[in-house]
Design brief:
The complex is a heterodimer of chains A (329) and B (343). Chain A is built from 13 helices and twelve strands. Chain A has 329 residues and is α/β, with parallel strands linked by helices. In chain A, the strands form two sheets. Chain A has an eight-stranded mixed beta sheet with strand order 6-7-8-3-9-10-12-11, with helices on both faces. In chain A, strands 2-1-4-5 form a four-stranded antiparallel beta sheet. Chain A is globular, with a radius of gyration of 21 Å. By secondary structure, chain B is an alpha/beta fold. Chain B has a single domain, classed as Rossmann fold (3-Layer(aba) Sandwich). In chain B, 34% of the residues lie in helices and 24% in strands. Chain B is built from eleven helices and twelve strands. Chain B has an eight-stranded mixed beta sheet, with helices on both faces. In chain B, strands 2-1-4-5 form a four-stranded antiparallel beta sheet. In chain B, helix 4 packs across helix 5, helix 4 runs parallel beside helix 6 and helix 5 packs across helix 6. Classes of the chains: A alpha/beta (329), B alpha/beta (343). Chains A and B meet through helix 8, helix 9, helix 10 and helix 11 of A and helix 1, helix 6, helix 7, helix 8 and helix 9 of B.
Chain lengths: 329, 343
Amino acid sequence: MATLLEIENLQTHFFTSAGVVKAVDGVSYTVDEGETVAVVGESGCGKSVTAMSILRLIPWPPGKIVGGSIKFDGQDLLQLTEEEMRNIRGRDIGMIFQEPMTSLNPVLTIGLQLTETLMAHTDITAKKANERAVELLGMVGISEPERRLVQYPHHLSGGMRQRVVIAMALSCDPKLIIADEPTTALDVTIQAQILELMKDLTKRLGVAMIVITHNLGVVARYADRVNVMYAGRIIESGSAQDIYYNPKHPYTLALLKSVPRMDQARQAKLDPVDGQPPDLSQLDAGCSFRARCRFATAKCAQEYPALEKVSDTQYAACWEKDNLEEKAS
Amino acid sequence: MSTTDAAVRDDAQFRGTHSDEVLVEVKDLKMFFPVTEGVFIHRVVAHVKAVNGVSFQIKKGETLGLVGESGCGKTTTGRCMIQLEQATSGEILYQGTDLTKLDSQEMIDYRKKIQIIFQDPFSSLNPRMTIGDIIGEPMKVHGIIDDPTERRQRVLELLAKCGLKANFAERYPHEMSGGQRQRVGIARALAMNPEFIICDEAVSALDVSIQAQVINLLEDLREEFGLTYLFISHDLSVIRHICHRVAVMYLGNMVELADCDELYDNPLHPYTQALLEAVPIPDPDLEKARAHKIVKGEIPSPMNPPTGCVFHPRCEKAVASCSQNVPEFREVKPGHWVACTEV
């Protein structure tokens, strides 16, 4: 598969009165056409800022992309003018946000919001746009789509609203969809419906997707490849199988041990990492995880480990990655 | 000691903690919120049946899980139990005393014994009080420790118990992370030496690694002080880990109640089965092998719940009679209760 998106050494910093917060500090990853890539991590690890950087939606001040490149479909998004960028957002790259109540405009009808994207990006008549809107709502499983067009977001439930947001993201046949915690605000049965819908539509339409989530179960169910982020960097990346069955970074290992599993009877207490993620404005040259890491050595304080190849599909940023299995047992 | 030994020991401790003595009993609890219309004269036009006839018991030392999706009435049930809501009807027996019959003066005694930990650590702490004052205030109000120096001592002790440094006593909530705030909420609940703690989505807002720390803290405290928990959550994985018994609610009704492992390994109610099916498991190969039968439709409005069995419009196994007859909540196996006629 051809590479659709290639992020190289992306750096997004926030310049605050308390210092420079390095929210994203040297992130590189790729997304192939039609592939689903998950970005996992805890709050503040920079997973959403990376996504916002791809769309160049970082508010200045205080945020700024200070380095790197984002190649999408052959062009560097960071070199485009604002005008050119606006043509890409919503047309080539669709976006699904976490909270469907705040990502829809409460004073505009569903129909208007759906057709607005279509009319802005394509040469389409209002009548045709309406027909397309009905078709899209039907595609995302909304009953009586004609009636929904004249309704407002508050008429719909959370799950329905998220379906509308998905319909909007798909409206201009994008090549890539960025879904930032798309189901976190939803109930489990609705979450399952929405994720199944997204999986089905992206497979059928051949759309690539970046799913940003903190839910390791969602990743296991839907992702082809996984990037694990911690304190503004990718610390491990690989296929879902690599990450879950053969983690090579102590943080990934700790994350997996922190989640209770629903399918297994209780074995013992959970084994979480101690402490908290570091303050991103106070990072030093060493590995940012070392304060919480049980495998840390003297070297970890001196130099940040690069993301290095472990196998054909897997990369990890840890000095101890080759000894991890031995040390963990 | 090898890890398996530790696991076995922990497991025995976990299962052996509760006795047969009933601490709390809820009988046919109903909580209807009126829906009013009109600007000057409020006419009651409908009722939201948040909790519609729920009964269960919690034994001393046990952790009962209350699980369900939004609007199922699990939080309202918890709030009724600590008298934050005045129940429409039904009894809440705490060691035999019906809390719904007590006046506010008589309730004060029970407020010490029953504590609650809320979901949102950002809104449940007063932003203008220091952490020390937040934890110390209930002891002052209830006259447990009147001497300020002694109270201060106790605050520091509670902070240490909950894994917080002593200098946190001088800080304000905004200076702390979500996990630390939740620990403050736990310390405040412990200040009264309670017997029974209602944890209302106590770990839901936390990141996984922090969530695991707080779960372990709650378990340690349970063992140390012989606490009884009502653990309200929508997270089925956390519930399975921490609870002895689990009750599943849907639209104000209890649909199933059983021992934890029995409920997860052998769910009987179609809704419980659908819930368990919907939860993704962090194991890619297992996920590939699962069938992923996904329940259709959405949760109906509790203002106008379906007739008969409330789950029948979404149920695969529904027969004609399900839309008329309200299923009885019955014991189908020892300790395994279910409200479905087709089981």
